[in-house]
Amino acid sequence: MKETIKSMQGLAEPFLAFLRWEASSGVILLACAILALIVANSPLSESYEHLLHYPIAIGAGEYVLEMGLLHWINDGLMAVFFFVIGLEIKREFLYGELRTYSAMLLPVGAALGGMLVPAIFYAAINYGQPTFGGWGIPMATDIAFALGIMTIAARQAPLGLVVFLTALAIVDDLGAIVVIALFYNTDLTVSALFLGLAAVAAAFVLGRFRVRFLPAYIALGLVAWLAFLQAGIHPTIAGVLLGLSIPAAADPEASLLHKLEHALEPWSAYAIMPIFALANAGVAISLATLDMTSPIFLGILAGLCLGKPIGIFGAVFVLCKVFRLQLPGNATKSQLAATGMLGGIGFTMSIFIASLAFTDSAMLDLAKISILSASILSGLLGTAFFKLQACFGGAGEKK
């Protein structure tokens, strides 16, 4: 019996640690986003822009790679963030909520609904416009912000609902990665692409044979990153693929997968994501960036604030009816609806996709303001629904 309890605690520990990191990092992320907005609209704005575009070169002789600081953050530092996402996805499928078909049915279905419906909303509003390419922006859910708000504002929410939102957001991240890989890349250089894929394949071979020599994975990851950068594939894809290649073990705590996630998750949550927010959330607010009649603004607002809750709630409702399942954590319908609203907090991944979708700076700035506005509104709506549900107790609702 003691061994069973210990085994269950071992399986739960990575999720609980992940939940603590993501929830608390949401506060830091919000503070950094606000700070970036303040700086971008202050006398320091020119210095801020100069710093972001300051060229940094790495290498020697003929082998030098030079990019601006913003590109190093979005292409380099975020590759580590995506590597951690790869580790999280693999952990969830092996040890977490997605390890069985029955357990993964609701979060995967909800994630798909929460990606497709927002994309349809945005595409319908922007059809025939030069802004149509931003359809992937409202598909994303920011784990840190969503869990942070749920932890603070919805303490009465069932733990099963928190687990559901976490699993949903991880599947959502996987979907966003697929969208980036397939639809947000430039013209491909085939030779470089094959080199990158060969490096990734070699990493998976090492993982298949349970090789735990970390420098080998780092070397292959660097080769894949450089090759994808040259190939026209966004180099962060190398990060998530490398994360998926890291070997696991029957005992989660003894695996290289667990050790790397445990070591890197705090850096991802408390350093990489805040740095990304500082570099990308700074938008000079003007009449152009506050154009609430723009198809970009309306598409993102409709996608995140309406499409997300409709897609998440609708998918879960249909699956529960068809397969006669209970709502996650035996939650009420209003709690599920509130969770769907929190799913509309896009931020990190939405801004990342926007930076790939729009090369025009005016469109990108408007998209960032739209994402921030829609994410704040989604957070407020989700919080309000949870508070109302707590006051009225969801009387008469069928669970």
From TrEMBL:
<dbReference type="GO" id="GO:0005886">
    <property type="term" value="C:plasma membrane"/>
</dbReference>
<dbReference type="GO" id="GO:0015385">
    <property type="term" value="F:sodium:proton antiporter activity"/>
</dbReference>
<feature type="transmembrane region" description="Helical">
    <location>
        <begin position="335"/>
        <end position="357"/>
    </location>
</feature>
<keyword id="KW-1003">Cell membrane</keyword>
<keyword id="KW-1133">Transmembrane helix</keyword>
<keyword id="KW-0813">Transport</keyword>
<feature type="transmembrane region" description="Helical">
    <location>
        <begin position="161"/>
        <end position="184"/>
    </location>
</feature>
<feature type="transmembrane region" description="Helical">
    <location>
        <begin position="369"/>
        <end position="388"/>
    </location>
</feature>
<feature type="transmembrane region" description="Helical">
    <location>
        <begin position="135"/>
        <end position="154"/>
    </location>
</feature>
<feature type="transmembrane region" description="Helical">
    <location>
        <begin position="269"/>
        <end position="290"/>
    </location>
</feature>
<comment type="function">
    <text>Na(+)/H(+) antiporter that extrudes sodium in exchange for external protons.</text>
</comment>
<keyword id="KW-0050">Antiport</keyword>
<feature type="transmembrane region" description="Helical">
    <location>
        <begin position="214"/>
        <end position="231"/>
    </location>
</feature>
<keyword id="KW-0915">Sodium</keyword>
<dbReference type="GO" id="GO:0006885">
    <property type="term" value="P:regulation of pH"/>
</dbReference>
<keyword id="KW-0472">Membrane</keyword>
<keyword id="KW-0812">Transmembrane</keyword>
<protein>
    <recommendedName>
        <fullName>Na(+)/H(+) antiporter NhaA</fullName>
    </recommendedName>
</protein>
<feature type="transmembrane region" description="Helical">
    <location>
        <begin position="69"/>
        <end position="89"/>
    </location>
</feature>
<dbReference type="InterPro" id="IPR023171">
    <property type="entry name" value="Na/H_antiporter_dom_sf"/>
</dbReference>
<dbReference type="InterPro" id="IPR004670">
    <property type="entry name" value="NhaA"/>
</dbReference>
<keyword id="KW-0739">Sodium transport</keyword>
<feature type="transmembrane region" description="Helical">
    <location>
        <begin position="101"/>
        <end position="123"/>
    </location>
</feature>
<dbReference type="Pfam" id="PF06965">
    <property type="entry name" value="Na_H_antiport_1"/>
</dbReference>
<comment type="similarity">
    <text>Belongs to the NhaA Na(+)/H(+) (TC 2.A.33) antiporter family.</text>
</comment>
<keyword id="KW-0406">Ion transport</keyword>
<feature type="transmembrane region" description="Helical">
    <location>
        <begin position="21"/>
        <end position="40"/>
    </location>
</feature>
<feature type="transmembrane region" description="Helical">
    <location>
        <begin position="296"/>
        <end position="323"/>
    </location>
</feature>
<feature type="transmembrane region" description="Helical">
    <location>
        <begin position="190"/>
        <end position="207"/>
    </location>
</feature>
